[in-house]
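sry for the spam today, last one i promise. struct tokens for design, 248 residues
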């Protein structure tokens, strides 16, 4: 085998080992997004995921109640994470959070959105911010009408039906070239649930999450890491579902 071929194979192997999530390429002028299942964002729900990007500004995540009032919009702005939410009373009672700096450093960062009735905690890595939505209705739409969760952008079909978005301006946000992994839902139940990719546009099909390639964790939560899948049993143990011998 020639030296140039060995070099090419080495580069491809390096790329394979470094890319361990769903990679949204966001090519110029083209549609791009990754679509995940609905989040049942009840009054004590949570949503977390990891992302990695070199792009400092763009839409990172979006979900809403199907076009009425409620939404979660998460974007990067100048390398910081900005979360806007509206969850109360069916009117504009939106609140904002801004957390982190230089998050476009091409390293993995973990985002968590945790609801507790009118209080929401937004965390990126070890930094957190809390805010309160004042009102009497703390429910996030109705699950059957709510949208799926989108990363990196939204389907272009929404441009023809902006009334189906609670926050139409999201369609004019810059799309984000970003890698996503470990989308975890706390859907009003004890046990956390992994979200699996529903569909996507402009994804790099060579790469998938480690836990999608191989899940050795049984009833424990599978977490995709750079070195492969890991089993996180703390939460399932608390719920009475963990199995002996399965540890992170």
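last one done:
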């Amino acid at each position: 085998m020639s030296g140039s071929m060995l070099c090419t194979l080495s580069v491809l192997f390096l790329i394979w080992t470094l890319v361990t999530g769903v990679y949204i390429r966001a090519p110029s002028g083209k549609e791009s997004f990754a679509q995940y299942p609905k989040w049942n964002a009840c009054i004590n729900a949570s949503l977390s995921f990891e992302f990695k990007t070199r792009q400092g500004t763009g839409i990172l995540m979006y979900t809403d109640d199907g076009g009425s009032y409620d939404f979660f919009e998460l974007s990067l702005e100048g390398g910081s994470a900005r979360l806007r939410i509206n969850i109360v009373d069916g009117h504009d009672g939106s609140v904002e959070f801004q957390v982190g700096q230089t998050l476009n450093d091409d390293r993995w960062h973990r985002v968590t959105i945790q609801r507790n009735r009118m209080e929401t905690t937004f965390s990126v890595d070890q930094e957190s911010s809390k805010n309160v939505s004042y009102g009497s209705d703390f429910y996030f739409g109705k699950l059957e009408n709510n949208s799926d969760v989108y990363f990196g952008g939204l389907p272009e079909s929404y441009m023809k039906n902006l009334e189906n978005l609670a926050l139409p301006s999201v369609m004019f946000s810059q799309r984000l070239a970003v890698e996503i992994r470990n989308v975890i839902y706390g859907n009003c139940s004890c046990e956390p649930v992994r979200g699996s990719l529903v569909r996507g546009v402009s994804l790099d099909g060579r790469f998938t999450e480690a836990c999608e390639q191989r899940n050795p964790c049984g009833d424990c939560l599978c977490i995709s890491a750079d070195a492969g899948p890991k089993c996180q049993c703390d939460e399932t143990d608390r719920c009475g579902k963990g199995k002996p011998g399965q540890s992170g």
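The longest strand covers residues 178-186. ok im logging off now
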